[in-house]
Design goal:
The chain has 300 residues and is α+β, with helices and mostly antiparallel strands. It is 20% helix and 42% strand. It contains 5 helices and 19 strands. The longest helix is centred in the last third of the chain and has 19 residues, at 281-299.
Length: 300
C-alpha cells in the first residue's frame, strides 16, 4: 500500500502525518470568485486516484468555512466535493477554465455548524460520485474525470482541518460490449482480457450477467461504474449499439473495435476513432498493440 504524503500547493497549510490544517493567511482571489477576502488553500497528495473511497474528519471553526475533496487535480476539469460556504452546504461541482459549475447540491436553507467536526466520505465508482456526511448520503452526481492526485481545498477565516485522512483505492473496471459468438469470444480472451488486465483493469463482459437475468438498468449501471468501455461494433447488433450510445451519452471513455471486413460504419459512430483489425493471428497482434497504446494514453 502506498503511503500518503501531503504538501501545500496554495496557502499557508500545516501538514502533520495524515492531518492537514489551513492557517488562514490572505492570498490572491479564487478563480471567478468575489470571495477574495476569505483565505483559502489547497494541499495535494502523492496518491493518484480514479476509483475507491476518500474519507476524513473535517473540522470547521464556523459556518462560513469550507472543506472539499478535489478529484482530477491539475487536469482540465477538476471536481470539488464536500462542505460549501455559500448556497447549499453539501455539493459537488466542477472547475473548468476558471469557471465553476454545480453538478449537484443539497441542504438548501440550512447552514453548517461552527466549531464542529464532520465526517466526509466520497465514494467513486466509474462515473458515479456519492458524498456522505456523518454516514448519511447527502448528494450524488455522475461525471467522468481524469485520473490525478487527490487534493483538499480549504477556505476559512479560522483554522480549518482535515484529520485522519484515509484513501482506499479500488481496481478500475472495464466493461466489454460485443456479440457473444466464437469469433468474438476469441478476440476477447486472446486480446482484450489479457491486455486490459496488464493495465490493472477488472474486466467484465455483459454475458457474465445475462444468464442471471440482467436487465437494461443493470447494464447501464455497469457502464456507469466502469472506468472504460470497449466495444466491438463489427456486426449490426442493436444491443451493442445501444450500450455504445449510452456510454457516449455519459462521456465514458470508449474504445471501438471493428473487423476490416465491415464495409462501412454506421453514420452515428463513423466520426469516432475506431481500431480496425484483421481476424488473423497477425491481425490480433496488431490490434493488441493499438489497444495497449490507447490504454497507456488513458493511464497517463
Amino acid at each position: 500500500m502506498t503511503l500518503q504524503h501531503w504538501i501545500p500547493i496554495v496557502g499557508n497549510i500545516s501538514v502533520l502525518n495524515s492531518d492537514v490544517t489551513l492557517i488562514p493567511t490572505p492570498i490572491s482571489p479564487l478563480p471567478s470568485s468575489a470571495e477574495s477576502a476569505v483565505p483559502w488553500g489547497i494541499a495535494r497528495s502523492n496518491l493518484d486516484f480514479e476509483q475507491g473511497t476518500i474519507e476524513f474528519d473535517a473540522y470547521l471553526p464556523d459556518s462560513e468555512s469550507s472543506c472539499q475533496i478535489i478529484l482530477g487535480a491539475g487536469t482540465q476539469v477538476e471536481i470539488y466535493a464536500g462542505l460549501y460556504r455559500t448556497g447549499a452546504p453539501y455539493g459537488i461541482s466542477t472547475l473548468k477554465g476558471g469557471q465553476w459549475e454545480f453538478l449537484a447540491a443539497s441542504g438548501h436553507g440550512s447552514r453548517l455548524k461552527g466549531e464542529a467536526t464532520y465526517n466526509l466520505r466520497l465514494q467513486v465508482q466509474g462515473s458515479n460520485l456519492d458524498l456522505y456526511v456523518d454516514q448519511v448520503k447527502v448528494v450524488s452526481a455522475s461525471y467522468q474525470f481524469a485520473r490525478g492526485p487527490i487534493s483538499i481545498f480549504f477556505q476559512s477565516l479560522g483554522f480549518v482541518a482535515a484529520k485522519n485522512i484515509q484513501v482506499k483505492r479500488q481496481q478500475p473496471a472495464c466493461f466489454v460490449v460485443m456479440q457473444f459468438t466464437d469469433e468474438y469470444n476469441a478476440l476477447y480472451s486472446d486480446v482484450i482480457l489479457p491486455t486490459c488486465e496488464e493495465f490493472k483493469y477488472k474486466v467484465t463482459r455483459a454475458d457474465d450477467f445475462y444468464n442471471s437475468g440482467l436487465i437494461i438498468e443493470d447494464i447501464t449501471q455497469s457502464i456507469r461504474e466502469s472506468a472504460l468501455v470497449i466495444a466491438d461494433i463489427t456486426p449490426n447488433n442493436p444491443n451493442v449499439f445501444y450500450e455504445v450510445g449510452f456510454a457516449h451519452g455519459i462521456k465514458k471513455p470508449t474504445i471501438l473495435l471493428s473487423d476490416r471486413k465491415r464495409e462501412r460504419l454506421p453514420f452515428d459512430v463513423s466520426g469516432f476513432r475506431t481500431l480496425f483489425y484483421d481476424n488473423t493471428i497477425g491481425g490480433k497482434k496488431a490490434v493488441e498493440d493499438k489497444l495497449r497504446r490507447h490504454l497507456e494514453m488513458l493511464a497517463s
